[in-house]
Amino acid sequence: MAKDSLRLSDVLRCPQAPVDINAIDTGATPEAPGDKDKTLKQFEPMAEELSELQERLFARGRSNPEARRVLVVLQGLDTAGKGGVVRHVFGLVDPQGIHHHSFKAPTDEELEHDFLWRVRKALPEPGMLGVFDRSHYEDVLVARVDSLVEEKVWKERYNIINEFELELVANGYNIIKCFLHISPQTQKERLEARLDNPAKYWKYNPSDLDTRSKWSDYMDAYNDVLSLCNPDVAPWYIIPADHKWYRNWAVGRILLETMRSMKLTWPPADFDVEEEKQRLSQA
Amino acid sequence: MAKDSLRLSDVLRCPQAPVDINAIDTGATPEAPGDKDKTLKQFEPMAEELSELQERLFARGRSNPEARRVLVVLQGLDTAGKGGVVRHVFGLVDPQGIHHHSFKAPTDEELEHDFLWRVRKALPEPGMLGVFDRSHYEDVLVARVDSLVEEKVWKERYNIINEFELELVANGYNIIKCFLHISPQTQKERLEARLDNPAKYWKYNPSDLDTRSKWSDYMDAYNDVLSLCNPDVAPWYIIPADHKWYRNWAVGRILLETMRSMKLTWPPADFDVEEEKQRLSQA
Fold this sequence. Notes:
CATH architecture of chain A: 3-Layer(aba) Sandwich
CATH topology of chain A: Rossmann fold
Largest sheet of chain A: 5 strands, parallel
Number of domains of chain A: 1
Protein name (chains A, B): Polyphosphate kinase 2 family protein
Pfam families (chains A, B): PPK2 (PF03976)
Mean pLDDT of chain A: 96
Strand order of the largest sheet of chain A: 2-3-1-4-5
Order of helices and strands of chain A: HHHEHEHHEHHEHHHEHH
Largest interface: A-B, 43 and 43 residues
Structural class of chain A: alpha/beta
GO molecular function, one term (chains A, B): polyphosphate kinase activity
CATH superfamily of chain A: P-loop containing nucleotide triphosphate hydrolases
Distance between the termini of chain A: 53 Å
Low-confidence stretches of chain A: none
Radius of gyration of chain A: 20 Å
Oligomer: homodimer
Keywords (chains A, B): Kinase, Transferase
Number of helices of chain A: 13
Strand content of chain A: 5-15%
């Protein structure tokens, strides 16, 4: 991959046109630096650059309540690797600067409010690198597939989501949305692996198979999400996720490219440096 | 260091007797596996074991609201390395399982409540590995040194803290409290480094020098903390912290020893494994 000429963000960017997710190869590895081993070798330099950019982001947030923030939204079916991305990509940088939130089925209290209520509460503070494992998109995915609300309710939500994300962008958020795309066969293998290993039982839930049986309904729902909520300021990326090494590298790389584009400089001193050096020499 | 015969936790355990922190060598490296290079080589195997133990802790928390939790309290003067420990020790494991909270000067809202109110709100959930950068101990440290409350108020807090921590232990918390102990000379060098490097200006605050000028008052306040709030179930460890590599290794090692002692097994399946294998084969 030519270092700066081709941005992976452009390659994996979800097109702004009706999308058919079924037509996209889940096993592809576009622009990977090489095979698995070669790609894994790229994690160390990627970690180094990401760490510095994250620290700059964080530093700027310390002194400025209007500092920028980054929000990465991870979506995908069970076993697509949302948790793996958190561990292997967000685990590359200082945990102090990470704001991780995992969305489960809404609680009774959450259901008493509009669907964005719990999302607003979970947003990262200025300077933070936020990551959502699932998100407000569940309210047009599982809510639609399982008819948890009436059709006219979930249909209105696409616009509400678009307005919400525009509001976030206006308030200094950089939003990156990643759909981790796996094949039904890959899911089957990963579920088998969970049932074959007592150290992985906790990751398995019998309801995963019920969800699996609605695969094509979910693909329809994702097609609408990707087609209807995909502005340039809050873009979707479609990450082929059958290969874990590629999935992790690709999300890391898109995050890196996004953070590079933010031109994050170190915040200036808000004190007189020479005067403080003087004071310190006598302290 | 003999692998299992000698526990670093025993070596760095703060004695249960009146403590004089000034008598403890900040540059020591007790039981280090070797010099800096040799010690840093121990981080990879330590990370591997810590990661697995943290995942077990997390897995148990998923299915059981009474699962154990770990809370690491980091205290120390400016530049002692609280942030460095978060990055280099807690950065070794899955960010998904880390609950990090940094305590700043209390807000107006926080001041309207008792001093533990904000601490209770920041406690880790079951299964989480929590880390506090500063803590309720600030309420008997800065609050005392700067006379933010009357003497009789802060004097009552030692007992309140002891009762609070006992309550946490009874509710399934494993508490580890680390005092990162540096010399005045080390602090001076680290502050100089912050003033010499624009990438570190953000870590510097002119008020750091005011705090520095009260060094011996802080040592007195720490001596009381270490002497009065040090039960076996919520122990203090005194970490010589002039060497960053030693400080990080020591905190990681104590965390590892503590988590080993918890005998964390993988949670059993809460479903019929064979039945699910059968279902999956047909799904």
